[in-house]
UniProtKB/TrEMBL annotation:
This is ABC transporter domain-containing protein. Gene3D superfamilies: P-loop containing nucleotide triphosphate hydrolases. InterPro entries: ABC_transporter-like_ATP-bd, ABCF, Chromo-like_dom_sf, eEF3_ABC2_chromodomain-like, P-loop_NTPase. Residues 193-223 are annotated as: Disordered. Residues 54-109 form the ABC transporter domain. GO terms for molecular function: ATP binding; ATP hydrolysis activity; RNA binding. Keywords: Repeat, RNA-binding.
Length: 223
């Protein structure tokens, strides 16, 4: 028989003595996918916490990796820390459970140059994925291998991954709307610069359609 996970379920309005162990597949059939996922994520976080010793030495070392001295890590309250030191505490807390993905929104705020260096090293040593939202170009140039820049309604994607694979910069224009003289709102189809491979594939599809005797439009958007 196929092995399956079972979950202890407590029914609303009934005693815990009436709890039942129900197979995951059955709970999914009943529409509890999101509840199961949230429970699994919580258990995974607990498991990650157990892999690290919650001791003063371990915490001090973790905070020191982000540039916060043991003096502040152990003998200071958060309300007594500076803005930059509080940022370090928040970053350290986010990295404590070794998450797969780290999302940082303006992480360089209030950090001095030494702290920025410590943060850069921590991000480079981090084994998971990192998404950074920042206006600090010098910092992003140091730690980001791929950058998405938004300016004047355009998204420009650059970086090593794209230059190595496509040898070009890909520019995508955001979807816009226009209003005609009668007040009707029309969406304008988003456009982006195609790579050489995409252009070649488009030409092949156009040639194949002509060979089949199909009427081929002159518009590039039709293929």
């Amino acid at each position: 028989a196929k092995r399956s996970f079972e979950y202890e379920v407590q029914f609303v309005g009934r005693s815990y003595e009436d709890n039942a162990w129900i197979a995951r597949e059955k709970l999914e059939e009943w529409g509890f996918e999101k509840v199961l996922q949230a429970f699994d994520d919580k258990e995974a976080a607990k498991a990650g916490a157990w892999t690290r010793s919650l001791t003063a030495v371990e915490v001090e070392k973790h905070l020191a990796d982000l540039g916060l001295d043991a003096e502040f890590a152990t003998h200071s309250r958060i309300k007594g820390l500076s803005g930059g030191q509080k940022v370090k505490v928040v970053l350290a807390a986010a990295m404590w459970l070794n998450p797969h993905l780290l999302v940082l929104d303006e992480p360089t705020n209030y950090l001095d140059r030494d702290s920025l260096g410590a943060l850069s090293l921590a991000i480079k040593d981090f084994g998971g994925g990192v998404v950074i939202i920042s206006h600090n170009r010098e910092f992003t140039d140091t730690v980001c291998v791929e950058k998405w820049s938004v300016e004047a309604g355009k998204l420009t994607v650059t970086g090593n991954n794209y230059t190595q694979k496509n040898l070009e910069k890909i520019v995508m224009k955001e979807e816009e709307v226009k209003v005609d003289a009668f007040g009707n709102v029309e969406k304008v189809k988003s456009t982006r610069k195609l790579s050489r491979k995409e252009l070649k594939d488009k030409q092949k599809r156009r040639a194949a359609a002509k060979k089949r005797g199909e009427e081929v439009s002159d518009s590039e958007d039709d293929f």
